[in-house]
Write a structure and sequence with these properties.
Distance between the termini: 67 Å
Number of domains: 4
Shape: elongated
Largest sheet: 8 strands, mixed
Strand content: 5-15%
Order of helices and strands: HHEHHEEHEHEHEHHEEEEHEHHHH
Strand order of the largest sheet: 4-10-9-8-5-6-7-11
Number of strands: 11
CATH topology of the largest domain: Endonuclease, Chain A
Radius of gyration: 34 Å
Number of helices: 14
CATH architecture of the largest domain: 2-Layer Sandwich
Structural class: alpha+beta
CATH superfamily of the largest domain: Endonuclease Chain A
Length: 330
């Protein structure tokens, strides 16, 4: 048992920066002191300059001192203060090492940038877009920020990928454009399932760019042609000034957008179709678009609208939207 204890003590001292010779001296101190330093040296297998150096290391660390002034008798001292000093010194050394290594890597990266331009922006086209987008969702570790607008790349399983990301506990914040809500089936089949799974969603009349930001690692920027409903080119932006600008653009758009994912307790009896109606209204969709998305006639749409206004005590659509948001109906 003493041998095992000595091994653990030696390892603990090593982690605090105490060398193996000084560790043996400290072990001998604990077993024999107070005794002359020469006796400690014999037990530790050290003598002369090696013994002086090892014992001096313990004194500097605050773990040992001369027991009697002017005498050769030595003994350990209570380690509390010494260990605190050692721990702080070790922490400072580790921080210094971290800064040194980080600085060396930054220097390497700057040299590489100067020599090779480091591929900060990569262009992805055609069939390569789908796999790259799926990899992006799978690679997220903390959060995904997205500005969403048509046209959409035809990617099978895209909603499942987003739901899987949410199931892993990844925060997902999305600003949808009004046009997103007006794409047939998009609200019911893609947007609402993600909101129900915990996505934080907002809506804006339009978004400045189709954008997905993965953690702080990189961003995907669509170079879609809205007029032709084509999405066949995408930029992958690595950490640089452009990525920082895209992050700031998302946050600015997020702040200006209206919530689409009310978190308050929803009242019993609110049909999914009615909630979809309210979300489409909040997004600014036209009456005929809402009726089409709900699969109802304009007359039925207006009747449902009047019922919802009555339930909320609203006299117009503006009041209804405001009350629905306050009540957590959106």
């Amino acid at each position: 048992m003493p041998c095992m204890a000595n091994v653990k003590l030696g390892e603990a001292l090593r982690l605090l920066g105490i060398g193996p010779e000084a560790g043996r001296v400290y072990t001998a101190l604990l077993e024999l002191a107070p005794v002359p330093l020469a006796a400690i040296g014999r037990a530790a297998g050290l003598a002369g300059a090696e013994l002086d150096a090892a014992y001096g290391e313990l004194v500097d660390a605050g773990l040992a001192s001369t027991a009697e002034e002017g005498a050769d008798v030595v003994a350990p001292v209570p380690p509390t203060a010494g260990l605190e000093i050692l721990a702080r010194r070790r922490a400072a050394e580790l921080e210094k090492s971290r800064i040194t290594v980080g600085g060396a890597f930054d220097s390497f990266r700057r040299q590489r940038l100067a020599a090779y331009n480091d591929h900060l922006v990569e262009v992805v086209t055609g069939e390569a877009i789908g796999p790259r987008m799926r990899h992006a969702w799978a690679s997220a570790r903390e959060q995904i920020r997205q500005l969403d607008s048509p046209p959409y790349f035809p990617l099978a399983g895209a909603t499942d990928d987003a739901l899987g990301t949410l199931a892993r506990g990844i925060t997902q914040r999305v600003v949808y454009s009004k046009a997103s809500l007006e794409v047939p089936g998009q609200l019911e089949n893609a947007i609402e399932p993600c909101i129900d799974a915990g996505e934080q969603a907002r809506v804006a009349p339009q978004v400045p760019v189709k954008l997905v930001i993965i953690d702080e690692a990189y961003a995907l920027v669509s170079l879609s042609i809205r007029e032709a409903d084509v999405h066949n080119t995408m930029l992958v932006v690595q950490p640089c000034g452009l990525l920082s600008a895209l992050v700031a653009l998302f946050e600015q758009t997020w702040q200006a957008a209206l919530p689409l994912d009310g978190r308050a307790t929803r009242p019993a009896g609110l049909l999914p179709a009615d909630r979809r109606l309210l979300r489409l209204l909040a997004g600014g969709a036209a009456d005929e678009v809402i009726a089409r998305e709900l699969g109802i006639s304009r007359r039925t749409f207006f009747r449902r609208l009047q019922i919802l206004m009555a339930r909320l005590g609203a006299e117009n659509r503006f009041q209804m939207a405001l009350q629905a948001q306050r009540s957590g109906w959106l």
